[in-house]
Amino acid sequence: MKYYLKKILGFIFTILLVSIITFVVFQILPGDPAQIILGVDADPAQLENLRATMNLDKGYVERYFIWLINALHGDLGVSYRYSREVSDLIAERRATNRKCCFADKAGCLHERSRCFRIYSPQVCPHIAGSRICLCILPYQVF
Question: How many C-alpha atoms does 24 have within 13 Å on its Cβ side?
């Protein structure tokens, strides 16, 4: 039990550390997100309104905790590029990846057991540039 508790706490610590590092890196990037979204000809009132909507008028620490609480509730925000919910975009990608790359992931999992792998030259129509892998489990290469 102590082992599992230690692993779970380590996992939570790692996730928090990665989220903090990612948040800090995106804060260091130059440019104003509101200005980028609305363009250079945007009205100053529109810019202030969008900054307030995106919580850009708050401090870094307060914005991080707002984002963290929303993420824990399942609200990952809206994509700037696609103007859609990020959770919807992730759900679409997961479904596509599950359909197209299951065989590849199974092949990778069995690679440690020296499984013979055959890559077909076909390209998956749903994910650009991915290879479809066929894994023949009974045959092992030593």
Answer: 6
Q: What is the pLDDT of residues 105-119, one digit of tens each?
A: 444 433 334 444 444
Distance, in Å, from the CA atom of 114 to the CA atom of 141, rounded to the nearest integer, reads: 6
Q: Tell me the pLDDT tens digit for each residue of 41-55.
A: 999 999 999 999 988
The residue among 101, 112, 97 whose CA lies nearest residue 134 is: 101
- H/E stretch holding 117: strand 115-123
- CA nearest 114: which of 94, 97, 131, 139? 139
Phi-psi category of 75—alpha, beta or left, where left has phi over 0 and alpha has psi -120 to 50? beta
What confidence tens digit (pLDDT) does each residue in 73-85 have?
A: 989 888 878 889 9
131 torsion bin: left (phi>0), alpha (psi -120 to 50), beta (else): beta
Could you tell me if 135 and 117 are in contact, meaning their C-beta atoms sit under 8 angstroms apart? Answer: yes
